[in-house]
Amino acid sequence: MSAVVKISDAALKANVDKLGALDAEIASLNKKAKEIKAKLIASGYDSIEGKLFKAVIVKKAGAVLFDAKMAKSLLSADALAACEKLGAPSVSVSLYDL
């Protein structure tokens, strides 16, 4: 376990507080962006243009995952194929300058 170092430099202490405030602001902005993205995805459109940006909704199939523990216990080609799992599908939003 590491010890907490007390620093007397006021500027460093102020930077810690600034960083904390920025982290809180970023978290708030990320939450708002997530809510907006959910609305864009729910619209059913493939792309949506605003005045400044264009949003493209990208739908991706789930990834094939590999279960290494199972593979180690099986090791034949057929058994290795049985280790594949289909991941959950995903959707993302990309923004482009207009």
Measured between the Cα atoms of the first and last residue, the distance is 51 Å
Classify the helix fraction into a percent range. Answer: 40-55%
Number of strands: 5
Shape: flat
Order of secondary-structure elements: HEEEHHEE
β-sheet strand percentage: 25-35%
Major sheet attributes? 3 strands, antiparallel
Number of separate helices = 3
How would you describe the overall organization of this protein?
The chain is of the alpha+beta class. The chain folds into two domains: 8-42; 45-98, no CATH class. The chain contains three helices and five strands. The chain has helices spanning 10-42, 68-74, 77-82; strands at residues 47-49, 53-60, 64-66, 84-86, 90-97. The strands form two sheets. A three-stranded antiparallel β-sheet has the order 1-2-5, covered by helices on one side. It has a two-stranded antiparallel sheet with strand order 3-4. A hairpin with a 3-residue loop joins strand 1 and strand 2 (53-60). The longest helix has 33 residues, at 10-42. The radius of gyration is 23 Å and the shape is flat. The termini are far apart.
Write the layout of secondary structure elements.
Layout: H1 10-42, E1 47-49, E2 53-60, E3 64-66, H2 68-74, H3 77-82, E4 84-86, E5 90-97
Antiparallel strand pairs: 1-2, 2-5, 3-4
In short:
The protein is built from three helices and five strands, in the order H-E-E-E-H-H-E-E. With 98 residues, it is an alpha+beta fold.
Keywords, separated by commas or semicolons:
98 residues, alpha+beta, 2 domains, 3 helices
